[in-house]
């Protein structure tokens, strides 16, 4: 039911034969990744991961903000994108806002990110542990993003049909969730995708 966004990414790459997929841990610089869920045969397969009010969700639209009076907001695509640095410095949202927006995994395993101008990472959250590994398959090239070496859980949101919240499997212990691989494709260039992603100033 979700739009598949795994059209061949780099069709010109000569990975035509079904050779085993080599995995490469790239060095910096980080780049800008639009994440989707891979979990063949499940309801979340192909679902786009969107930043919504401080969390990451499948089945909900991204929430962004932009001060139109000072900035040409139409230049932002408002796609949810994250940057993952393999230097160990963590992950952040692909936002233009000065100071950026830090990504983290909170104590119950939820993927979260700070509000603009706030740097409000919960004291019990973990910022380090994100890794991106390039996967060169026969038909597509993408980066798989892990947290502390593990994949992700899409956990149903109470009262919201077909909406799932993204949790790190290494931290979360929740029932009823669907495991998935976070597969990200490179988007855009050095231009951030959003001015800022909406997030609460008070976090837990
Ligand atoms: C992106 O969202 C902002 C609000 O955050 C809006 O002003 C802007 O028009 C949107 N951009 C596009 C291309 O729709
Ligand atoms: C993670 O922690 C739980 C328990 O305190 C809160 O209910 C969530 O809102 C929080 N999620 C994020 C994304 O910070």
UniProtKB/TrEMBL annotation:
InterPro entries in the record: PhiA_domain (IPR052820)
Signal peptide location: 1-18
Keywords: Signal
Name listed for the protein in its UniProt record: Putative secreted protein
Organism name: Lachnellula suecica
Upper taxonomic lineage: Eukaryota, Fungi, Dikarya, Ascomycota, Pezizomycotina
């Amino acid at each position: 039911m979700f739009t598949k966004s795994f059209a061949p990414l780099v069709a010109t790459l000569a990975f035509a034969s079904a050779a085993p997929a080599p995995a490469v841990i790239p060095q910096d610089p980080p780049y800008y990744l639009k994440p989707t869920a891979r979990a063949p045969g499940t309801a979340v397969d192909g679902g786009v991961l969107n930043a919504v009010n401080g969390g990451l969700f499948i089945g909900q639209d991204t929430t962004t903000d932009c001060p139109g009076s000072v900035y040409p907001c139409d230049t932002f695509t408002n796609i949810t994108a994250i940057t993952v640095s393999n230097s160990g410095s963590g992950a952040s949202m692909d936002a233009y806002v000065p100071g950026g927006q830090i990504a983290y995994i909170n104590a119950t395993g939820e993927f979260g990110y700070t509000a603009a101008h706030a740097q409000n990472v919960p004291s019990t959250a973990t910022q380090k542990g994100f890794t991106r590994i390039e996967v060169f398959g026969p038909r597509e090239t993408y980066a798989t993003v892990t947290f502390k070496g593990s994949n992700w859980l899409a956990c149903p949101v109470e009262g919201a049909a077909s909406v799932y919240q993204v949790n790190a499997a290494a931290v979360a212990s929740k029932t009823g969730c669907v495991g998935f691989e976070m597969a990200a494709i490179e988007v855009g260039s050095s231009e951030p995708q959003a001015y800022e992603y909406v997030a609460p100033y008070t976090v837990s």
